[in-house]
Each structure stands twice: as C-alpha cells, then as structure tokens.
Input
Amino acid sequence: MPFSSSSSSSNPSGSNKGIKVLKRDGQLILILPKGVSSVDIKEISDGVFALVFNAYRTYKQADREDRGASRWYEGEGKYGKREPAGSTEKSSQQRVQKGEKGKQAEQEKALRPQKELLKKLYKIPFNDRELGSLKGVLSTDEVGLLKALLKEGDIFIYKKDGKKYIAVKKSVYQKLREEEQSSKGPASFPNYAIMQPEDARKLAERAPTLYAAIRHFDGKVYLAKKNLFLEWRKLVEKVLKEEGPLHVEDLAARTGIESNAVLVVLRLMNEAGDVVEVKDHVFALASD
Output
C-alpha cells in the first residue's frame, strides 16, 4: 500500500511531495521525485538510519549558478559590485592621482608654446638677439609670448652699446642646454658640457683622457675637450686682457664662442687661478 514518506526523510527541493514508498512482493520500493539523482543511507545513531537525497542540477540551473558564482568572484554580488577589502581607499587615491596627472598634463600643454620659444631663442646667437632684429624672426604670437616670458623672468633685457638684447635666465639656459645634450644620446661626445656628477662619471669612463673637467661648488661638473679648451682659453685671455672684466655673454659675443662654452672655460681657468669671478658671471684676469 503506498504511503508518503515520513518527516525523517529529507527532500533537496525543500518538500517531500512526490516521495512514495510501495510495498510489492514483500519488498519496499522508494519512488523518487524529479530532481533527485541518488539516495545515500547514513546511520545517524545505533540502529537508526536516514535517507539522504542527492539532487541533480539541470543545465539551465548549473549555467545560472555558475554565472552567479563567476560574477561574485569578479566582485559582483546580489546588490551590485562588491569592493574587495581596502579597495575603496585605494580607488579614491587612484582617482586623485589621475586628476593630478590630468592637471599636470594640461599645464604642460599650456606651457609648451613658451618652452618652444625658449628653445628657439636658445639656438639664436646672442648677437642676433637684438630686440629690433628679433621682430623679423618671431611671429606675432611669439612676440606675445616673449612679453609673458619677460614678465615671468625666464628672459630679461640686457643692454649693451645702447642696444637691447634678449638674454635667457641662467638657470633656464642651463636646463635647455642639458636637455639638448641628453637628446644626443649616451653615445655622443660633446665638445663641452655642464652636467650632473653621475653623468660626467659615465662620460669619463668612456673617454678618460678626452676632457678637462672640474666640479664647481654648485654641484655640477664643467668639462670641455682638452684641445678645444686650450684654443678657447687663448681667445678668452686675449679679450679679457684687452677689455678688462666682462660678463660671460659679452665674452661670448666678442670671441664667437657659445656662452655656455665660455662659462665652462672660465670655470676651468678659475680653478687654475688664471681668472677671478668679480661678481656673478663677470670675470677678470687674475693678474689685473
């Protein structure tokens, strides 16, 4: 006679509906409902046994459950995206850093025209930077930028022989020079240079006898190829002997040597005691 299973029997679907036991030919036959794949018999106490139903998953159930597990693994839960522990603060920092980088990029973009103009002025010999003659070299936009650079102090007016010249601020000029030298790559051997000690050391390792060099109290190394230094020193000595103390820019104009090269020569001569720096970037022969 068929009857329903007792409460001691468990159903994986949460209900015992459809579970039947038939007695046939002296044997008990268990009728399983849909969703049950197998039954295990477990002894829960001495002489007492329990039936454990093992449910199977349909393809759609398995696919749905697997996709749910995958979403949770990737950080998505029932109520939306689940942030890993400690990730909120990290995400906030990343957003701040991204914002700062964006602002920096915008600032660099805005300053790019001014930097390009500084590079252009740097490549123009000092004697050709007379204010009147520059108007024919610079565009209308560049003339406007020139006024902005004057206001910011990156360049200044240098008066000589009744004429006005555009001079580049010392720190700006050296930075432009260093950028130019670094763009040449490590394989090049510059005629002269003003560089950081580490870069000078690497250069000396590749050409240990090529340069005359000193490390100045400003922390930078001033160096020039020995043969060029000897040639330039004679020209500098000749001009200083004829005209007395002069600014580096004036010496560059009179010798035809680039002003940074003149400064390197003067630093080397100063180290040897041949010249003295009477004031910032103004030199005289030590014998004067």
Remarks:
- Residues 1-16, 66-83 have pLDDT under 50 and may be disordered.
- The longest helix spans residues 87-123.
